[in-house]
Amino acid sequence: MVYEKGAVLDGGVRGVAAIWSPWLKKKHRVSENLFHITDWLPTLYTAAGGNFDDLGQIDGIDQWESLTETSKRMRTMALINIDETSGEEALILNHWKVVKSNRTSDIVYYLKYSGEHGKMGPEYNMNDVAESLAGSRLSKINCLVSKADCMDTLTTYDLFYNIRSQAKIDSKCIERIADPDPNGRYQCFDSPCLFDIQQDPCEYQNIASRHPEAFNMTIDLLVQFKKELTMQNYPAIDPAADPRFFDGYWDTWMEKSVGSISFGGQLNSCVIIILIMCFYNYFIY
Question: How far apart are CA 184 and CA 109, in angstroms?
C-alpha cells in the first residue's frame, strides 16, 4: 500500500485490529467490513451492556453485532478527510474511494512510481511469535476459556497462516507500472481519482473515467460535507511544550485554569500503561 500515516490514501488510514473474546460466534475469520474509528465508542459501549440510544446523535455506528454474530455490513460510507490547507480530500462509498490532492501535497510523491523498493524487513516467523511470552500466555488462556479453542501447535500454526493470508492485500493488488515520466502530470490533482478499493486495495489504478456515475456520486458527497466544514485553526508552535521539560513526557504546559487537576509525568505514564493493559485484555480475550 502507498503513502504514510496521516495521509488520505489507504496506506495512511487503513488500520488493523484484533478481537479475542468468548462472545464471538464466528471465530477465526477476517472481517473486511468498513469500520471507522468513531465506531469504537458505540461498539464498545454496546459490548459493555449499554444502550446505543443513550449516546444520542453521534457519528459512530454500533458494529458489535456485525463483529460477533452476523458479519453484516453496517457502514457503507466514511469521510476520510477534507483538508482545506493541504488540499487533500478523500471519501469512501461502498467499494469506491475518491481522492483529491494538489501540487503542494506530499501525495503526489507517493502516487508516482519508479519501481519496487526491494525487501523492507525480515520474513514473518511464526515460531518466534507462538513461542513468545505473549503467545504462550494467550495459548494457555485460550484453553482455560474454551476447550474447543484449545488446539495443538500444528493446528494453531495452520490457522494462523490461513488467517494471515486472508488479511494480506498484496496478492489482491493489480500490477503497478512504473511512470515513464516522473515529472509528468500529477495524478489526482488535475482531476480527482477514483479507486475500487475492493479490487485494487493498493490504489494503483485510477478508474474515474470508466465509472462516471460512481465518481460523480462520491464527489457530490464531498461537496455536501464541505458545506459543514469548520476551518482549521493552527496555533503557533510553543517551545515550552517540549517534552524535555517534563521528564520526557507529553504534558500540559499552559497556565492551569482554576479547579483543574494537574498530574505529573510519572503519574501520566502509569495511567497510559493501565489503559494499554485494559485495551489489550479487552480485545485479546
Answer: 12
| 3-state per-residue secondary structure call for the chain | CCCCCCCCCHHHHCCCCCCECCCCCCCCCCCCCCCCHHHHHHHHHHHCCCCHHHHCCCCCCCCHHHHHHHCCCCCCEEEEEECCCCCCEEEEECCEEEEECCCCCCHHHHHCCCCCCCCCCCCCCHHHHHCCHHHHHHHHHHHHHCHHHCCCHHHHHHHHHHHHHHHCCHHHCCCCCCCCCCCCCCCCCCCCEEEECCCCCCCCCCCCCCCHHHHHHHHHHHHHHHCCCCCCCCCCCCHHHCHHHHCCCCCCCCCCCCCCCCCCHHHHHHHHHHHHHHHHHHHEC
pLDDT tens string 143-184:
655 555 565 555 667 777 788 888 777 767 766 655 545 555
